[in-house]
Amino acid sequence: MHRRAFLAGVFAVVLVGCSSGPATTAGGEGGQGAAAGEKKIRIGFIPKGTTHEFWKGMQAGAEKAAGELNVDLTWKGPLKEDDRDEQTKVVENFTAEKLDGIVLAPLDDQALRPPVEEAQAAGIPIIIVDSALQGVKTVSFISTDNFAAGKLGGEKLVKVMGGKGRVILLRYAEGSASTSEREKGFLEAAKAGGLEVVSSEQYGGATRESAQSASENLIARYKKGEALDVEGIFCPNESTTFGMLRALQNAKLNGKVKFVGFDSSKELIDGITAGDIEGLVLQNPNKMGYMAVTNMVKSLKKESVPEKIDTGAVVVDKANLDSADVKALLGVK
Fold it and tell me: Cβ contacts of residue 276 below 8 Å, gap of 6+?
């Protein structure tokens, strides 16, 4: 398959069921979730945000499972990934609606505890996806092993830098458990591989715009003449990776520094093909969404559900972009 056709297939999968704030519902006919005359299972699914491609991919997987199982699925989350109050409100509303189950990707590993505990007290089971919630036992936690995935990113940067040089880590946001684990994994691998981390305290924030601004500030700090006084950069999610890519391109430094990022979008895959990005650590949000809905249905039917499910991650670069493994990860046949 030609690369152009492959990419078109990848992003057709990711963009299915796009949402940008308002609640959307999905369900199917003839599935296994509800027999004829039986009340449909109602599940609320709350992502961290509704704009990044990662969540659109997760929504596509969740809606696929809902269609197969004839489940009423309501997808609703905050527009931006820093609106803890809005996400809390969605959990509270779903609790008040007495849904059968709630799937949540918590924006903050502490702040979302009270509304989750209130939902559980009301008899509503919770499955957590993507990012951990501290101090609360839920039906299941379905996620990438984020520490291991961060290590993959660090090991990739060590390899392309030949085990020496200065690197920058642009973090995502405080309170985000998933990206915090990726950052820890990256730092461990980078330091073990001989790299010198010269900056690891800056945060890109929840949007592409804030990430680009933070990236531009970092570039200005480490720029020497027409070059950058670091040899490598790592970013732990889609928005920080995109913001850094744009900042490097605008400064005409793209391709002149070894850059490894996390998650995918059309622009980031284009960055790999152009040689601006050495590699991306890719998760499987489609699988995460699909397994969250299927396992919630199993739990509601009193079937056994694993307490923790690792949905996997892989580093994608020019060498394996068209490989069978990458196509399988992204759902491309």
Answer: 245, 248, 249, 254, 255, 259
DSSP symbols for 306-319:
-SEEE---EEE-TT
Question: Which residues 6+ apart lie within 8 Å of 333 measured at CB?
Answer: 9, 327
User: Quick check: 204 and 239 in contact, CB under 8 A?
Assistant: yes
């995935």: which residue's tokens? 149
The pLDDT assigned to 148 comes to 98
pLDDT in tens, 223-271: 999 899 999 999 999 999 999 999 999 999 999 999 999 999 889 999 9
Q: How far apart are CA 7 and CA 121, in angstroms?
A: 45
Cβ density class 179-207: b for 16+ within 10 Å, e for less? bbbbbbbbbebbeebebebebeebbbbbb
- What are the structural domains of the chain? 3-143+284-311 (3.40.50.2300), 146-282 (3.40.50.2300)
Which residues lie closer than 8 Å to 162 by C-beta, 6 or more apart?
Answer: none
Could you tell me which residues come within 8 angstroms of residue 117 by beta carbon, excluding any fewer than 6 positions away? Answer: 136
The backbone region for 77, taken as left when phi is positive above 0, alpha when psi lies in -120 to 50, beta otherwise, is: beta
Residue 273: per-residue pLDDT? 94
| The Cα angle at residue 275 between residues 316 and 210, in degrees rounded to 5 | 80
Rounded-to-integer distance, Cα 313 and Cα 316, Å: 10
The torsion of the CA quartet 297, 303, 306, 309, rounded to 10 degrees, works out to: -30
Read off φ and ψ for residue 74, nearest 5 degrees: -110, 120
Q: What is the pTM of this model?
A: 0.84
Work out the number of other CB atoms within 10 angstroms of the CB of residue 20: 10
DSSP H or E segment with residue 225:
none
| Cα gap 162→176, rounded to integer Å | 31
Is 269:10 a contact under the CB 8 Å cutoff?
yes
Burial class of residue 169 (count of CB atoms within 10 Å of its CB; 0-12, 13-18, 19+): buried
